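Example record used in the benchmark description.
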Amino acid sequence: MTEYEKAQAGYLYDANHDRELAIKRAECAEKCFDFNNVISVP
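Model output (structure tokens):
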């Protein structure tokens, strides 16, 4: 079972030593940054 599968199943997992989770975390951080920097025009 991969660390990602463990996380999805609700088990304890180690996100610091899993390349797949590191990539997903970076993608999520970039999406959050983009979303938080959208300028709302009234």
